[in-house]
Write a structure and sequence with these properties.
heterodimer; A: 467 residues; mainly alpha; 3-stranded antiparallel β-sheet; globular; B: 74 residues
Chain lengths: 467, 74
């Protein structure tokens, strides 16, 4: 690195993203604990392993093609241009591994590429990867207790390493076509992560159907209460904690944002527009608070919904949380919770959708709402520092919300689930669902306990004689 | 024998590029990784299908399911 200042900037950026990744790991721990807490005891192991194994599968596929998609697809491709060359992000690139930034070994990279990406590529890849886990994990919760793990893992790879990263390339990239043409603005991913994952989950749920016993013969829903409310609340608290890392990871920590003479170092959002950690800290906490307060009133103090509403409050304000006033963030968070709570029960009752953890509501509806509200609240704001790009408008945001939730979320989720269902690979056989998804493991454990008990009884005479 | 692309850390550090061994074999490693990933999905689909078929056979008797449900409150 050519100067002390640029070296420090790069090494600070490397460390910054590394810290966000560690924080974001808590999101996944939280999701696992939360899902196990919601599931019935007979399904605990299946629920845990279904979510856990998305970690390696999405990681490997995000290495193989997800990271490349982000840099290659900002133009669609073929919406406003072709594929963009991204030699540092293809899985066979020398920059997708330990590298000192020196002379490239191959011809596809320039010395500039290696100098810039050698220390940033791994941590930046990991930050996006943790968003991928989150997207897949959101889907996981919605379909617990009846989806086959093997089917879910295919769907997890598709949402985690294909569809969400296409939408990120379109609407969460400084040069994305949605940013350029629609003025799409979604600084902390109301639509880019949450609406798309909620839509994808809804598409699957339509095909998957409800758990046995969820609806009475007259169509009214039964409540299947969480087995362990303490796990649910601890899990959600952990997701809150990880969400801090998520917010920080959505920023670029330090770059020169001065246009023209002079230098001004600042953090920026993902569109490279200046912001600060201080601004998003105000808004994160105020939208969390607005969401929790609304959720408590709406659900009459139900812990599951109060905690989930904290998340939904943040998600509803996230699209514009780089620019909102904290009181605006609080009110938008509260309004988003009212909308998502009402919609959840209306959809459940009207369409018999069994969303076991409220994921479609908390992420999908609140995310969709958040993208649309930002269109009105930030009407006329620049969507990016590039003056040639379209400004933020309600219609640009509405179109963006439809693309995120519907086109890249619900539609592919529905179609792939339909394909898996047709091959008999989507849903667990009904008798196994009734007996419990852990039934074989339980029978085996019972046998092992019996064997051990027998061995201990047989050991009694020799133990007594030795004594 | 040397698997790396540099001999020591002396001299100009910026002359050093990739740190991992067997530089030049990246494409082969990618093909192996894709095969490992796809193979994993295929074998998991097959194993899971077999396991569910065995469980369906075992629990096709209503009394057997009832016995399991009775053992649990949930």
């Amino acid at each position: 690195m050519e100067s002390e200042l640029s070296s420090l900037t790069v090494i600070f950026t490397e460390f910054y993203y590394w810290v966000t990744v560690v924080f974001m790991f808590l999101i996944h721990v939280g999701f696992c604990i939360y899902e196990v807490g919601v599931s019935r005891r007979k399904n605990h192991l299946h629920t845990l392993m279904k979510n856990t194994m998305l970690v390696p599968l999405v990681t490997v596929t995000f290495f193989l093609f997800g990271w490349w998609i982000y840099f290659a697809f900002p133009n669609g491709p073929w919406i406003i241009g072709g594929l963009v060359d991204a030699p540092w992000a293809v899985p066979w690139s020398e920059l997708m591994g330990a590298h000192m930034g020196g002379t490239p070994a191959g011809d596809s990279l320039s010395a500039e590429d290696t100098m810039f990406w050698a220390r940033i590529n791994g941590v930046f890849w990991a930050a996006f990867l943790l968003f991928s886990w989150t997207a897949a994990s959101i889907v996981s919760g919605a379909c617990i207790e009846r989806i086959r793990s093997s089917a879910f893992w295919i769907l997890a790879v598709l949402i985690g390493s294909v569809f969400w990263i296409i939408d990120a390339s379109w609407g969460w990239h400084a040069e994305g076509w949605m940013v350029q043409k629609l003025g799409y603005h979604d600084a902390y991913a109301s639509g880019v992560i949450h609406a798309i994952a909620g839509g994808f989950a809804l598409g699957i749920l339509i095909v998957l159907g409800p758990r046995i016993g969820k609806f009475r013969d007259d169509g009214t829903p039964r409540v299947i209460p969480p087995t362990n409310p303490w796990f649910v609340t601890i899990g959600l608290f952990m997701i809150f904690t990880g969400f801090w890392g998520f917010y920080a990871a959505c920023n670029v920590p330090i770059i020169d944002v001065q246009d023209g003479e002079g230098v001004f170092f600042s953090a920026t959002n993902i569109y490279l527009a200046p912001t600060s950690l201080s601004a998003i800290t105000f808004n994160f906490l105020m939208s969390l608070s607005g969401g929790m307060m609304a959720g408590y009133i709406m659900s009459r103090g139900d812990p599951f919904w109060t905690y989930s509403s904290g998340l939904a409050g943040i998600i509803a304000a996230s699209a514009g949380n780089d620019l909102y006033h904290p009181i605006q963030a609080m009110l938008i968070g509260a309004a988003g919770v009212v909308v998502m709570y009402k919609l959840h029960y209306w959809v459940e009752k009207t369409f018999k959708i069994d969303d076991a953890v409220g994921a479609v509501a908390v992420h999908g509806y609140a995310g969709f709402f958040g993208v649309c509200v930002a269109g009105f609240m930030l009407w006329g704001y620049p969507s990016s520092p590039n003056a040639d790009f379209a400004p933020i408008t309600p219609w640009g945001q509405l179109a963006g919300a439809v693309i995120m939730f519907g086109v890249l979320g619900l539609l592919p989720g529905f179609l792939v689930a339909k394909l898996l269902a047709r091959r008999g690979l989507l849903r667990i056989p009904a008798v196994v669902e009734l007996a419990g998804l852990d039934v074989s493991a339980e029978v085996e454990a019972e046998q092992q306990r019996r064997n051990l008990g027998r061995a201990e009884r047989e050991a009694i005479p020799s133990v007594i004689s030795d004594a | 024998m040397m698997t790396g692309s540099f001999e020591n850390f002396a001299g100009t550090i910026t002359d050093i590029g990739p740190l991992y061994p067997f530089v030049g074999s990246e494409m082969v490693m990618c093909i192996i990784a894709v095969a490992f990933w796809l193979g994993w999905h295929i074998s998991e689909l097959r194993i899971e299908k077999r396991e569910y078929e065995a469980e369906v056979e075992k629990f096709s008797d209503a009394e057997e399911i009832q016995r399991h449900l009775d053992k649990r409150a949930d």
